[in-house]
Amino acid sequence: MTSYLHPPAGNGDEHALEVLFADVFQQHEHRLYTLALCLVKSEQHVKDIIQDVFLKLWEHRHHLQDIHNMEAWLYRVMENKVIDFLRKAAADNRLKEAIWNNISQARNETDEWLEAKEYNRIIQQAIDHLPPQRRRIYCLHKKEGLDHARIAEELSISRHTVKNQLSAALQSIRNFVARNARFFFL
Question: How far apart are CA 104 and CA 92, in angstroms?
Answer without folding.
Answer: 18
